[in-house]
Design goal:
The structure is a single chain. By secondary structure, the protein is an alpha+beta fold. The chain is about 30% helix and about 40% strand. Strands 1, 2, 3, 4, 5, 6, 7 and 8 form an 8-stranded mixed beta sheet that branches. Helix 2 packs antiparallel against helix 3. It is elongated.
């Protein structure tokens, strides 16, 4: 099972409870939650918030491709994956990304969770702009998107 969504902060927030409900399965003995939040420092600058922007359809397509790739790579039975990424301006401590996975065994869940965050960083077109204490802001240089 798979769920992927870009969440517009103007309409809603990413909720851990949604992920918990989605990945709950008696077939899976291990669940892992990766929650990315805005931290207060980056490159010796005091961060006050972050703005994320994306082409939503391309992001969903990227998430789907990563999911399909994970199925062929790992061949785990009964894997369940929930991914949501925020779009818009969020403050310190707020959730920017939530990846929840469930698998039969804990080592599978850890491996799958790590695979998803690393692949998203490499392949998904999401841009972020940091906002600083002095009211300056800047778009961060991202990773070059890797194709298949």
């Amino acid at each position: 099972m798979f769920h992927a969504k870009v969440v517009d902060i103007k309409k809603e927030k990413i909720k851990l409870s949604n992920a918990e409900k989605f990945i709950a399965s008696s077939k899976c003995g291990a669940s892992i939650y990766f929650v990315g939040t805005v931290r207060d420092q980056n490159n010796n600058k005091k961060v006050t918030g972050m703005t994320y922007d994306s082409h939503d359809q391309m992001v969903i397509k990227s998430f789907e491709e990563i999911y399909k790739s994970s199925i062929s790579k790992f061949k785990f039975d009964d894997q369940v994956v929930f991914i949501e990424h925020i779009k818009g301006h969020i403050l310190l401590g707020e959730i920017s990304i939530l990846i929840a996975v469930a698998c039969k065994h804990r080592d599978q869940a850890y491996e799958l969770s790590r695979f998803f965050i690393e692949e998203i960083k490499k392949k998904t077109p999401i841009w972020k702009k940091e906002h600083y204490e002095n009211e300056d802001s800047e778009w961060l240089e991202g990773n070059l998107i890797q194709s298949k």
